[in-house]
Amino acid sequence: MSISSYKFLLILFILGIGIGIQTFISCTLHFPPEGIEAEATSSSSEENSSSSNLAGSISSSSKQNEPSSSSSEENQNEYSSSSDSESSSSSDNALSSSSDIPSSSSRVSSSSSNIPSSSSLALLSSSSICTAKNNTQTKYCSGGTMKEYGEMTDGSQTYKTVVIGKQTWMAANLNYTPSSGKSKCYAEGNGNGGDTWLAPDKAADQPKIKANCDKYGRLYDWWAAKKACPSGWHLPDTSEWNTLRGFIEKEIWDNWEDEDFGWDVGTKLKAITGWKETSTSDKGVDSYGFGAIGSGYCVSCDKLSDASGFYEGSEMEAHWWSATGYVNKNVNPIDTTQAYKITITYNKKVLSQKAEKKADYLYSVRCVKNN
Length: 371
Description:
This protein is an alpha+beta fold. It has helices at 3-30, 34-65, 69-77, 79-95, 104-113, 118-128, 206-216, 222-228, 238-254, 257-260, 265-269; strands at residues 139-142, 145-148, 150-154, 157-164, 167-170, 183-184, 219-220, 233-234, 295-299, 310-314, 317-328, 335-345, 352-357, 361-362, 368-369. A hairpin with a 6-residue loop joins strand 11 and strand 12. The radius of gyration is 46 Å and the shape is elongated. The model is unreliable at 27-127 (pLDDT under 50).
């Protein structure tokens, strides 16, 4: 074989090796081995999963911060109790990763668990909100809460009692006939000058006299009033009346009722019935079960027969004796003939105090329990 033939064969051999290498490289690029393909697939899945989780976290975070109608209602109901904790948690969440943020559904569930059920709210409402219109024979509304009347018996008379602050008061005027001193039922007497009084010596008038005493209690001069309350009870002095007044004034002030409703101590102690009709603001609301009614009074009852004395004020005025006498040192000799009375009227809101003649007036009595 000639040298030229050998050269030709060598060229062909080199060309064949080049084509083989090119084919190998091409196949390797287009068809990676099984292990490489699996690794690439796994890596791709993780990347997709990571991006998906990130998108989900962002979506969840957006939903959490986007108020729904139900969650906004709950936030309004719980604003006062949760506003501080919510502002604190929001600053913490800003520093934490999105994966630490609770889902909106879990937050709503947590909030709703703290909201009382409708039945619980009804129970709270029924036990803590009331007015005198809810009073019954055994219960009375005091400070917005229904309480049980107390009870005490004196001879044939039974009186309901109420607790106001730290004092226990009879919930009705005293109806006791004393053995001494002047005492009468409203309109009881022998009137002249065109007035017709209920005569105690007339059988026909007896039921009317009793009815007035049952409704208003008896009327007493000051000396009779001092002795009239049963054992364990007494006629309150002005300091005890002022304690009652002070307790109610504080509650009125604390609740802004003086500004919002125009109420005063007299309004709060008046019964809602038993008074002459007047403007709405002067009507009684009987907030403590005291049940004051317009029991009236008598002036110079020892002179009823000559028309110098008279009864007045039923359903218009209530007057109660205090145990505190009034001493007028501006006269000579010093005047000790007067004592303080406490008054509520149908057309005023206040509880007032004034000195009157011990013998000339017959007023009602409210007893307070001994400490």
